[in-house]
């Protein structure tokens, strides 16, 4: 079971390969082929990034056939291309895209500087995500409108500024598990950092989130070996138990949304929502 085709913009589902004969493609054929290749397959052992995903979503991707939104694969294509570029420009005395394994999982770290013993991960995030990683927090302020029909009026706007909590949970656990794998194989890690590239550039929206650079190098702290391994072992056990017993895992916790638009991730971004009992019950047609 895996991704077997595309969910077209008009709502129709087509198998991979059908796009070659389509006379009204939503994207050029090379882009569609890249979107198809960006889908992941199950080989019996979860990767580090797989275990970071909610267990129900991973379970459904492994056990059911589903169709992916080609437009939703663009971010994955950009990320894959970015990693290829970085790998092709790895300096001497650096290691890149080395895959390591243990009894729980496997993972390939992005880059490692052997001289400074620094582990790096490359991410292409939207401006809001980068702002959260930097620990920027919102603050409301008054301002005077300088143009238009409301010129001279006083209004409120939200600004993001440093001083909040850095939200690095997933990438911090990801890098720390890579660190465990590397140290197990005799590669010492003294420092860790995530290189964030701002997807979309420095537009008005990015600046409203406090983003003034196209890229940020953000340090990542060490997490206790005990807690890192416990976290991934727990996620591994839950996934393998669900697969062995064919039991649907608990509902995903990371569903996003707001009071006016709850479960936004379920409705707009989950590729397997049509196979999920929660989505079918609340939003299925």
Could you characterize what this model shows?
- By secondary structure, the protein is an alpha+beta fold.
- The chain has a single domain, classed as Alpha-Beta Complex (Lambda Exonuclease, Chain A).
- It is built from ten helices and ten strands.
- The strands form three sheets. The chain has a five-stranded mixed β-sheet with strand order 4-5-6-9-10. It has a three-stranded mixed β-sheet with strand order 2-1-3, with no helix packed on it. It has a two-stranded antiparallel sheet with strand order 7-8.
- Helix 3 runs parallel beside helix 8 and helix 6 crosses helix 8.
- The chain is globular and about 65 Å long.
- The model has no long low-confidence stretch (mean pLDDT 91).
């Amino acid at each position: 079971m895996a991704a077997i085709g595309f969910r077209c913009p008009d709502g129709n589902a087509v198998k991979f390969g059908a796009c070659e004969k389509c006379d009204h493609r939503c994207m050029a054929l090379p882009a569609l082929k890249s979107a198809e290749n960006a889908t992941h397959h199950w080989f019996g052992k979860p990767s580090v990034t797989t275990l970071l995903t909610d267990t129900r979503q991973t379970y459904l991707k492994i056990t059911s056939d589903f169709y992916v939104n080609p437009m939703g694969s663009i971010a994955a294509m950009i990320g894959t291309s970015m990693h290829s570029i970085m790998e092709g420009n790895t300096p001497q005395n650096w290691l890149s895209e080395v895959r390591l394994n243990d009894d729980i999982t496997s993972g390939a770290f992005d880059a490692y500087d052997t001289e400074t013993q620094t582990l790096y991960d490359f991410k292409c995030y939207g401006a809001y995500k980068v702002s959260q990683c930097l620990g920027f927090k919102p603050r409301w302020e008054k301002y005077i409108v300088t143009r238009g029909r409301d010129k001279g009026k006083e209004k409120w706007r939200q600004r993001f500024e440093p001083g909040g909590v850095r939200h690095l949970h997933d990438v911090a656990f990801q890098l720390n598990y890579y660190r465990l794998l590397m140290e197990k194989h005799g590669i010492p890690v003294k420092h860790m950092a995530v290189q964030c590239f701002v997807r979309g550039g420095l537009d008005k929206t990015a600046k409203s989130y406090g983003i003034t650079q196209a890229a940020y190098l953000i340090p990542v702290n060490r997490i206790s070996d005990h807690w890192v391994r416990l976290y991934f072992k727990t996620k591994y056990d839950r996934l393998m138990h669900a697969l062995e017993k064919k039991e649907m895992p608990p509902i995903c916790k990371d569903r996003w949304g707001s009071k006016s638009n709850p479960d936004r991730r379920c409705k707009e971004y989950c590729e397997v929502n049509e196979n999920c009992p929660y989505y079918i019950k609340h939003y299925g047609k």
